[in-house]
Known about the structure:
- The chain has helices at 2-17, 43-64, 93-107, 115-132, 138-142.
- By secondary structure, the protein is mainly α.
- Helix 3 runs antiparallel to helix 4.
Amino acid sequence: xxxxxxxxxxxxxxxxxxxxxxxxxxxxxxxxxxxxxxxxxxxxxxxxxxxxxxxxxxxxxxxxxxxxxxxxxxxxxxxxxxxxxxxxxxxxxxxxxxxxxxxxxxxxxxxxxxxxxxxxxxxxxxxxxxxxxxxxxxxxxxxxxxx
Length: 147
């Protein structure tokens, strides 16, 4: 009797420890649905990424004391680039954009010793606008601040 109980327990243990393989069905679609839309980056998103990249380089030049070159006129497209979400272009946006351009140009017209503070004002201008709309990039923008 004891042996039968042991054999039965061993049998249950073996069965219980076996993994049950689930088969998942993969649906193969031969036609692209009519409502399918491939994501396309907006002009504004591309411009913002380019400005972030340029300002990273500018930040390093300011920190190391290297030449900073001239104001990048491509930044002026901030007034005309199309948004991902057109509702982000509201009555306050032009004010934010003008302030950013004014601060950015200021970096190239002030004394070298004041560039760090001016650059941080540019970063703060970016953050202020992004707090009002499209908050996702704020952590990346904050990394631009020069301590």
